[in-house]
């Protein structure tokens, strides 16, 4: 499994030809256009807006297209306190997102319930959906969210796509 | 007309139903002896005394005392900026009093919140549903005998809840005028 992007291109050596693997190319596409689903539930959402605005500028990482429709989003950023009442809606939006999908738990509340050890708050969004990256902070700095996005990107770049598909195809052939 | 004069006017009109006014930091409170009469008192305050703005309605749980509940109405006269507070007791067995929705329409959500958190019902309310917790949640979480960590519940397809880990808490501050170190939140387990 490659640990980083396998695309190395030097036009002086290789001319107009780029040589790579299909997996690396597909992952390169995916990693550089991660469309976030901004699940803004509390004050972290304000910080998430700062990540999208000019000073921190999430578009430097290809993720400026905030999608409010889960069908068009790749990465849910859970920004804020998930109450039990909201938990069902968060789960439902997550289920509506098409694969492949990733999730960032932004801030203390989304990661663990934070300071709300109470009857009303879900103690970490990972109780209902799988989380790829947890971001500490209350709220986290925008840089921390960008760092989480970069971690998601490097994770995407290590995920085999075609190899998995081929293996699946072979399995089916053997079974038949 | 000051708030104190309002209290006197109420006493003239309703007699023994209204207690002597108590003052705390310049704010005047009176107690209404019978919760069933709260609508008449509120209507008089609004129509005759000009208290056209209901600031808030809240409720207290005097756990261990009888009557258990106290419902508190904060009234304001927008013309002369007077404020008066009406308090009335409700017993736990009854847990019901008339809604003042006919006097101030704004009370709709206030009364729903009290019903949701404390379990006190308001007779005549047009839409007495829970407002913060979901429909079917079996507890009233602001009652004193409800644990801070919550209780597990599950309404399939609607919502669930679990007991929150307290990690040695609850962490409670102490109100006092001494140093910040002695006041700051620490583990203070209630005695009972």
Which topology of chain A does CATH recognise?
Answer: Rossmann fold
Rounded to the nearest angstrom, the radius of gyration of chain B is: 19 Å
Superfamily at the CATH H level of chain B?
NADH:ubiquinone oxidoreductase Nqo5 subunit
CATH arch. level architecture of chain A: 3-Layer(aba) Sandwich
Number of helices of chain B: 4
Strand content of chain A: 5-15%
Average the pLDDT over all residues of chain A and give the rounded result. Answer: 88
**What is the highest CATH level, the class of chain B?**
Alpha Beta
Distance between the termini of chain B: 47 Å
Order of helices and strands of chain B: HEEHEEEEHEEEEHE
Largest interface pair = A-B, 12 and 23 residues
- CATH fold name of chain B, please? Beta Polymerase, domain 2
Number of alpha- plus pi-helical segments of chain A:
7
The unreliable regions of chain A are: none
CATH architectural label of chain B:
2-Layer Sandwich
Note down, in words, how this protein is organized:
The complex is a heterodimer of chains A (176) and B (192). Helices cover 41% and strands 10% of the residues of chain A. By secondary structure, chain A is α/β, with parallel strands linked by helices. Chain A has a single domain, classed as Rossmann fold (3-Layer(aba) Sandwich), CATH 3.40.50.12280. Chain A has a four-stranded parallel β-sheet. In chain A, α2 packs antiparallel against α6 and α3 crosses α6. The longest helix of chain A has 16 residues. The model of chain A has no long low-confidence stretch (mean pLDDT 88). Chain B is an alpha+beta fold and 192 residues long. Helix content of chain B is 20%, strand content 27%. Chain B is built from four helices and eleven strands. In chain B, the strands form four sheets. Chain B has a five-stranded mixed β-sheet. In chain B, β6, α3 and β7 form a beta-alpha-beta unit. The model of chain B has no long low-confidence stretch (mean pLDDT 90). Classes of the chains: A alpha/beta (176), B alpha+beta (192). Chains A and B meet through α4 of A and β9 of B.
């Amino acid at each position: 499994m490659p640990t980083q992007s396998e695309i190395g291109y030097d036009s002086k050596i290789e001319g107009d030809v780029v040589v790579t693997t299909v997996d690396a190319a597909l992952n390169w596409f995916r990693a550089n256009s991660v469309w976030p689903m901004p699940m803004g539930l509390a004050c972290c959402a304000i910080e998430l807006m700062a990540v999208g605005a000019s000073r921190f500028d999430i578009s430097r990482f290809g993720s400026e297209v905030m999608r409010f429709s889960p069908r068009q989003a790749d990465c849910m950023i859970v920004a804020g306190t998930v109450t039990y009442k909201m938990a069902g809606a968060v789960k439902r939006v997550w289920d509506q997102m098409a694969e492949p999908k990733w999730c960032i738990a932004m801030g203390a509340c989304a990661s663990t319930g934070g300071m709300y050890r109470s009857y009303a708050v879900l103690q970490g969004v990972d109780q209902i959906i799988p989380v790829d990256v947890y971001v500490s902070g209350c709220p986290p700095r925008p840089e921390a969210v960008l760092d989480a996005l970069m971690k998601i990107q490097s994770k995407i770049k290590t995920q085999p796509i075609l190899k998995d598909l081929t293996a699946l195809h072979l399995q089916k052939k053997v079974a038949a | 007309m000051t708030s104190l004069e309002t209290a006197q006017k109420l006493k003239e009109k309703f007699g023994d139903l209204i207690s002597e006014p108590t003052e705390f930091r310049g704010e005047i409170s009176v107690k209404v002896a019978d919760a069933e009469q709260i609508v008449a008192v509120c209507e008089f305050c609004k129509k005759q005394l000009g208290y056209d703005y209901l600031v808030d309605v809240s409720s207290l749980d005097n756990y261990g005392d009888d009557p258990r509940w106290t419902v508190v109405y904060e009234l304001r006269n927008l013309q002369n900026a007077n404020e008066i507070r009406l308090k009335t007791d409700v017993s736990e067995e009854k847990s019901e009093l008339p809604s003042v929705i006919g006097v101030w329409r704004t009370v709709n959500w206030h009364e729903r919140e009290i019903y949701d958190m404390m379990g006190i019902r308001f007779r005549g309310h047009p839409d007495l549903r829970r407002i913060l917790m979901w429909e079917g949640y079996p507890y009233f979480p602001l009652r004193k005998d409800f644990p801070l960590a919550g209780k597990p519940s599950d309404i399939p397809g609607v919502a669930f809840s679990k007991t929150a880990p307290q990690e040695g808490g609850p962490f409670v501050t102490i109100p006092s005028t001494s140093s910040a170190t002695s006041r700051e939140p620490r583990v203070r387990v209630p005695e009972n």
